[in-house]
Amino acid sequence: MEIVIGLIIIAVGAFCQSSCYVPINKIKSWSWESYWIVQGVFAWLIFPIIGASLAIPEGKTMGDLFGIFLQNPSETAMTMLFGMLWGVGGLTFGLSMRYLGVALGQSIALGTCAGLGTILTPVFTGKTDDLTTPVIVGVVVTLLGIAVIGFAGQMKTASLSKEEQKAAVKDFDFGKGITVALLAGFMSACFSIGLGYGDSLKFADSDPMFATLPATMLVTFGGFVTNLVYCVQQNIVHKSFTDYAKGDLWVNNVVFCLLAGLLWYSQFFGLSLGKGFLTESPTLLAFSWCILMALNVTFSNVWGIILKEWKGCSRKTVLVLLLGIAILIISSFLPQLL
Fold first, then answer.
1. Residue 138 and residue 293: Cα distance in Å, rounded?
2. Distances in Å between the alpha carbon of 181 and those of 43, 57, 224?
3. Which of 102, 113, 270, 322 would be 185's cystine partner, CB 3.0–4.6 Å?
4. pLDDT tens per residue across span 213-254
5. Residue spans of alpha helices (H) in the chain
């Protein structure tokens, strides 16, 4: 029963992440770089700090947690380094949504991230014993589901006119989008590797449900640095610093940036809580990253359907899409059955 609860919690977090681009659509008259870094303040700084504080046992302080970081400089540096590399993935991830839409963009990027994150994390951290046959089979099935969804995307592109493509996704560009999405997925896998390096950066008596949140904070901080540098550079190039001076928009835009940041962070908060219920299954613990990404893809495509990104597609295309979603759902618990 605890395993089921853990999977449900991870699924809720995945649903929240897949919904984070919905409030962004409510932001008014700000350039991409302006709202991206403002939501990042919430997603990559404020909420991760709050989350990490939950991993601090009674009688300890945030200062004690930073003391653990200082006592383990190598692990701390590697965790933040891979966070900075993940930040590149975060930047290109946003562009993949721009060129492919929520459904297809997240499918390609997160699918690549799911497979590489699950495989490369134990390789980089030396925990190759986690790469059991059930885990590898689960990754293969997940990638199969992503491939089916990608094929549905190709069918969609072939069946719609340029005008219909633009109506569904304003800046639709399949070729450019696929390239960006694959890069985003590859770099986003660095988040999982960063968590692997930061696995020991916690109190020995931390609640298991919150144990990964200090490492999550370090990874997101590294990603924030990367995004901050890029967004400020874009503010300079596009002369969009004036966005922040539009006082009449601040309440609306900050509220929706906060909501987007909260929804985004929920995936890793849910991952930490969910893993606390999966301790009886080492296989699912090793596969948990892939589960999260697979469910992110599943829910992003549900949102794609709701937002009518697949409107005008043939019945056959929609059936292929639904087949891919079904395969992803199966992949989430398949390793436990093997």
1. 12
2. 21, 40, 20
3. 113
4. 999 999 999 999 999 999 999 999 999 999 998 888 999 999
5. 2-18, 21-24, 32-40, 47-53, 62-71, 73-125, 133-159, 162-168, 174-188, 190-197, 213-238, 250-276, 282-306, 315-337
